[in-house]
Design the sequence.
């Protein structure tokens, strides 16, 4: 793909110096191609593929109206893959401003003495070598993951949105009735831009850019006896409603004042979307065929003769539920290609309750006659039309759960999970919210719970905020190592029978 | 390719046809390099383990300490020139070599990173900027950007941040090692690792050493501040882990149910250089762990009865309980709400109501250990403070919290009450210089009782109880309670171990459990684990060594994991 013209790399200098006229921080498609062109002219070795990935994030955390943490990152990396199976990684820092400094950065990376090719490496001219030649141009599902509003917010949100949120929080805090324990509030606002180019010398070229944003607010009483939370996530910053999020968190905290204890046991549970999302996000690995064959997921059959039979084609959950991942999902889209650039598309995991497919890595796909597929890059669970208010009105006695705390998988065969409720737990009696109750620990499995559905609501994308890495849904891609952005999870609120609230929790 | 509900009727495509239509796993896999390394035992940069040149020759040369110091000075000068009232910086050049052996293979991988983290304070507001480009020009730009950010934040911050004064420190320190593991060849590393699976030869039957995973780390880290501190540390660490598996001898259950996986970390060690793996200490510990597991494979399996049970927590579990519940709850940033909306708050709050109160059993004493060879040992912490060895829980009462320069003022009243000057414990740490430090000590010790009871003696005191030898813990957002999901639980009736229990978990309240400590084991019951603690924005995990003996607990609620389908 060499050309006679010299690619224009002036965007590198603008990146280094900061360009106030530019609304986006990550490369455009043309800039990425120019960088690829330049880099491929510099690097030595039989490169067949080059991947450019860039991620820019701006995260701000405020606690008690104080800005306690701002974290801005701009990570631009090049990855060269050669025909002999070796990889060269180059980090492009802000000191790379032009072709000369780019050359220096690549040369520095090449100076490291990469290991010699392994003896089992195939002949690069072998037409059956999977590392060679099949990278012809491909078709990709069109997606619209980029929103200029989010790119603009990266520059403006601290001065505008956060300042307004801090003012609103202060006002709500000052409005608390005298004699009640005052509120402390914390908010996390995060904005992200991503870009990825997978460029093959044989012509295949995959490009994607995306934005994402999330606002979460938690409010607690100073005496530590009541708490509330709200959050919203969307790729389009303009869809977020910060003032509503602040109000909801404060409202929930106030509504949980005076919580009383309720005997643990099995109750009808009305789970808000955030609660459902926290269970579903630990299901991503369930769709890995290897996990199922290793009996680490409910979709495998435990007593099958070879221990590896799967539940494909069987009804595994309520027939009202369909679960899919679609790159072009308006609420939960993602890049329509594997990290190495090969196309991927919509995956219909469960259709009307029946397990239709799983994610096959290359070796499993080859041996089982399937196409390889990624683990879910988002999960969208179909819903119904029942509102939470309607669910409450139909409930004689039950528990409304706004959200859960830290959840772990406790039992892999059935997908049993343990954790505790938080930020809003209420007794529902005779069709109404009766009073707030203290938190529970629970032990439940979405696999079984999705077979005890009483009602399903309208799906929405849920926010998770910054969470511990061990709660990440997936290790696919290179963006999830520090827990944010979270892969999109779009779920409805649900009403389920016999949810197992196993014991009381002291935590608030 | 159309979907199919079953692979049975689908003709297998030829390899060529398959490859033209599908995605491939290229070298490096379907995952990105970093993600792949994070989730599997595969290395970041594969190293040929038969190579006879030094491991360090596979990486770029280390940045000279003098260069790092010069860069630090440049950054501090730029920050103060731009208007910072206070500035500090950490620069690090780090490498890790991971060597994994098992299932007849040995693999090695090398990772190297360098970067910086610059913190500035302007008009009471702090900004932190981390980067991977430690060049003079990059640092000057970073300093100017940080100051501008802090200045902007100061206009909308209501409570100014203050930095408690600390002594100015200068100097250089090197972790004492005899043989630099990075100066050793991969071939020698492989030879050393290969020796461990040979222990299996003396353990025919139900116990085996399945994997050896040793991670060596080395870093040159420089800390400098506008107050005049400038220290250079040559850090070293080793994290050896052995996965020892056992199989219960009860043919009535499936192989999956009969397996007893146990991972053992062998910290603290006498040294962190390569001489450690050449010596016998590591082998002896591995052998001891295998011998320790062997008798536990002979019990029959059963699904236990639920209810409140007396309890003995073997040391890996007691260390995990303290490490996951107690230690995070003592981090002052969590106590003061700075981790609210992220990793959580603390059940040990507010300090005024907690300090000095007899919350736990008087036999519980927990200390932070400044010396030793634990993971992350250093002469100065990441705020330039010398780490202290101190009790944080004394005779069941919290007597200290883990604080940083910006929040220790919250303990002013407590120190004054004890007629002590406000003192930092030197626990401010960050695993990556590009992230802000957090108050997490490198090592904690739950003190055992000299001549205290053995595990068997602790069990003998139970009429109807459970010994938990291994498991993992689900923790709530405050550390107030959780569940121990037991991979190895054993029933005890009238002091005698009867059966191994399947699909059980223990639910507990932290205060109740630690208040209910009836006896603390002796040194023979001690074990050390690596405890991973998360926090900060972005959320990162940090390792910490926790040493604890076995504990006899009054009781806890034993429940069943078995679910019913309806």
Sequence:
């Amino acid at each position: 793909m060499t050309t006679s013209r010299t690619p224009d790399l002036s965007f590198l200098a603008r990146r280094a110096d900061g360009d106030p006229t530019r609304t986006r921080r990550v490369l455009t498609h043309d800039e990425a191609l120019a960088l690829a062109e330049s880099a491929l002219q510099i690097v030595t070795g039989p490169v067949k593929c080059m991947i450019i990935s860039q991620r820019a994030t701006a995260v701000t955390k405020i606690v008690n109206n104080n800005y306690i943490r701002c974290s801005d990152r701009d990570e631009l990396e090049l990855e060269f893959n050669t025909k002999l199976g070796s990889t060269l990684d180059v980090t492009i820092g802000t000191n790379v401003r032009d072709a000369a400094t780019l050359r220096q950065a690549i040369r520095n990376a090449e100076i490291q003495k990469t290991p010699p090719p392994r003896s089992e490496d195939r002949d690069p001219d072998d037409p059956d070598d999977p590392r060679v030649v099949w990278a012809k141009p491909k078709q990709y599902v069109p997606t619209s993951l980029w929103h200029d509003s989010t790119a603009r917010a990266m520059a403006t949100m601290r001065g505008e949105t956060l300042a307004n949120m801090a003012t609103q929080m202060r006002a709500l805090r000052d409005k608390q009735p005298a004699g009640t324990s005052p509120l402390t509030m914390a908010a996390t606002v995060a904005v992200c831009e991503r870009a990825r180019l997978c460029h093959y010398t044989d012509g295949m070229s995959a490009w994607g850019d995306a934005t994402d944003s999330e606002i979460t607010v938690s409010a607690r009483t100073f005496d530590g006896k009541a708490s509330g939370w709200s959050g919203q996530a969307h790729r389009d910053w303009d869809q977020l409603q910060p003032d509503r999020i602040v109000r909801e968190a404060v409202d929930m905290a106030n509504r949980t004042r005076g919580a009383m204890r309720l005997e643990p046991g099995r109750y009808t549970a009305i789970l808000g979307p955030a609660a459902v999302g926290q269970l579903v996000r630990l299901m991503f690995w369930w769709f890995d065929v290897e996990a199922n064959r290793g009996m680490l997921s409910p979709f495998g059959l435990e007593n099958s003769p070879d221990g590896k039979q799967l539940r494909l084609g069987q009804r595994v959950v309520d027939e009202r539920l369909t679960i899919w991942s679609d790159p072009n999902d308006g609420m939960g889209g993602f890049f329509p290609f594997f990290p190495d650039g090969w196309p991927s598309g919509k995956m219909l995991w469960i259709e009307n309750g029946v397990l239709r497919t799983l994610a096959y890595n290359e070796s499993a796909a080859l041996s089982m006659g399937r196409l390889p597929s990624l683990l879910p890059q988002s999960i969208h669970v179909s819903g119904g039309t029942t509102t939470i208010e309607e669910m409450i009105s139909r409930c004689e006695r039950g528990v409304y759960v706004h959200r859960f705390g830290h959840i772990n998988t406790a039992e892999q065969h059935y997908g049993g999970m343990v954790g505790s409720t938080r930020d809003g737990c209420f007794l529902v009696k005779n069709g109404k919210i009766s009073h707030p109750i203290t938190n529970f620990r629970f032990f439940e499995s979405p696999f079984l719970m999705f077979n005890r559905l009483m009602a399903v609501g309208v799906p929405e994308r849920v926010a998770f905020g910054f969470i511990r890495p061990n709660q990440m849904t997936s290790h696919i891609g290179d963006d999830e190592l520090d827990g944010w952005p979270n892969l999109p999870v779009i779920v409805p609120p649900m009403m389920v029978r016999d949810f197992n609230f196993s014991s009381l929790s002291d935590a608030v | 390719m159309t979907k199919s509900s079953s692979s049975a009727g689908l003709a297998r495509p030829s390899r060529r046809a398959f490859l033209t239509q599908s995605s491939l796993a290229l070298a490096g896999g379907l995952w990105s390099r970093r993600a792949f390394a994070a989730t599997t035992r595969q290395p970041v940069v594969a190293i040929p383990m038969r190579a006879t040149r030094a491991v360090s020759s596979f990486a770029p040369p280390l940045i000279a300490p003098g260069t790092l110091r010069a860069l630090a000075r440049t950054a501090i000068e730029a920050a103060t020139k731009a208007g910072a009232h206070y500035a500090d910086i950490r620069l690090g050049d780090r490498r890790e070599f991971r060597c994994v052996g098992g299932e007849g293979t040995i693999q090695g991988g090398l990772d190297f990173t360098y970067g910086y983290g610059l913190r500035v304070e302007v008009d009471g507001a702090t900004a932190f900027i981390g980067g991977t480009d430690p060049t003079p020009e990059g640092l000057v730009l970073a300093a100017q950007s940080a100051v501008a950010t802090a200045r902007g934040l100061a206009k909308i911050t209501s409570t100014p941040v203050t930095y408690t004064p600390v002594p100015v420190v200068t100097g250089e320190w090197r972790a004492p090692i005899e043989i630099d593991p990075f100066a050793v060849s991969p071939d020698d590393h492989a030879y050393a690792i290969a020796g461990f699976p040979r222990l299996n030869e003396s353990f025919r039957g139900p116990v085996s050493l399945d994997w050896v995973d040793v991670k060596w780390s080395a870093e040159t880290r420089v800390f400098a501040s506008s107050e005049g501190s400038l220290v250079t540390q040559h850090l070293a660490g080793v994290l050896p882990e052995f996965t020892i598996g056992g199989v219960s001898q009860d043919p009535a259950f499936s192989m999956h149910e009969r397996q007893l996986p146990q991972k053992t970390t062998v910290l603290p060690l006498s040294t962190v250089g390569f001489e450690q793996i050449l010596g016998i200490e590591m082998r002896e510990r591995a052998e001891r762990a295998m011998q320790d597991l062997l008798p536990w494979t002979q019990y029959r399996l059963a699904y236990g009865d639920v209810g409140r049970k007396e309890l003995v927590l073997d040391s890996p579990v007691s260390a995990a309980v303290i490490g996951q519940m107690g230690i995070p709850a003592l981090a002052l940033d969590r106590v003061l709400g700075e981790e609210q909306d992220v990793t959580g708050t603390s059940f040990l709050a507010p300090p005024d109501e907690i300090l000095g109160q007899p919350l736990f059993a008087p036999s519980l004493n927990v200390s932070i250990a400044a010396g030793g060879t634990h993971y992350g040992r250093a002469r100065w912490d990441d705020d330039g403070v010398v780490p202290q060895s101190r009790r944080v829980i004394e005779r069941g009462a919290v007597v200290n919290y883990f604080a940083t320069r910006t929040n220790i003022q919250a303990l002013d009243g407590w120190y004054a009450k004890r007629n002590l000057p406000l003192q930092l414990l030197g626990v401010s740490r960050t695993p990556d210089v590009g992230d802000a430090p957090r108050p997490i000590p490198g090592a904690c010790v739950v003190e055992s009782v000299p001549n205290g009871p053995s595990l068997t003696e602790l069990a003998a005191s139970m009429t109807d109880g459970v010994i938990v030898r291994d498991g993992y813990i689900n923790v709530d957002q405050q550390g107030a309670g959780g569940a121990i999901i037991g991979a190895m639980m054993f029933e005890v009736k009238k002091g005698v171990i009867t059966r191994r229990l399947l699909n059980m978990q223990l639910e507990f309240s932290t205060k109740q459990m630690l208040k209910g400590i009836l006896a603390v084991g002796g040194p023979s019951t001690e074990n050390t684990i690596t405890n991973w603690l998360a926090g900060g924005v972005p959320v990162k995990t940090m390792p910490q060594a926790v040493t604890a003996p076995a504990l006899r607990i009054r009781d806890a609620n034993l429940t069943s994991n078995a679910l019913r389908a309806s």
Q: What stands out?
A: The CA atoms of residues 58 and 72 of chain A lie 4 Å apart. Confidence is low (pLDDT under 50) at residues 469-482 of chain A.
